[in-house]
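quick one before i forget lol
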Amino acid sequence: MVNLYGAPHNHDRMLGSERGTLIKRPQYGERWIGYFKGKSKKKVICRELTENGKTYPALGTFYGHVRQLDIARVLESYLETDQLSIVVRILRLKGSVLAARLAEVQRVDRGLRADERHIREQAVA
């Protein structure tokens, strides 16, 4: 998302000084990686991450990411703030502090998008 004001996004501040620092704590990061340890087939992992292909990435794209990085690094990339909803869904973290903070980040993000739309409309008018 474009930051029109030059300041860090509120959602970045809410999750820690660096993007994703909250999720990388052992309580979530290790649990996330551990969840996939027994799953050896990339296709199965991709289906779970994408809700059976309903969301990005497509299976071929996922395979490309795995070839480029490796499966561990691909899974770690889901620990970033823009992928937290997937982590919360798969680990069933509803009601957790993380889920609450994610909901707040999403609320702030919607507000920022509305502000940006308003600014663009005013600039064009």
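fyi The chain has one domain: 10-124.
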